[in-house]
Design brief:
Layout (H helix, E strand, L loop, with lengths): L11 H12 L5 H14 L8
């Protein structure tokens, strides 16, 4: 199962943009891997899940 969350938005336009991006589907695996690697490289002890 994959999930995402929109934490907040400043305007209806931002919400509409975010919904359109979510509708494009998940990020490619190589992008997810690069994000995870960058996060782990810069992790400051965050205990959440990426």
């Amino acid at each position: 199962m994959k999930a995402s969350a929109i934490v907040g938005t400043a305007s209806v336009e931002n919400l509409e943009r975010d919904v359109a991006l979510v509708e494009r589907g998940p990020l490619p695996d190589e992008v997810v891997a690069a994000l995870r690697e960058a996060f782990q490289r810069n992790d400051q002890g965050w205990v959440g899940q990426v």
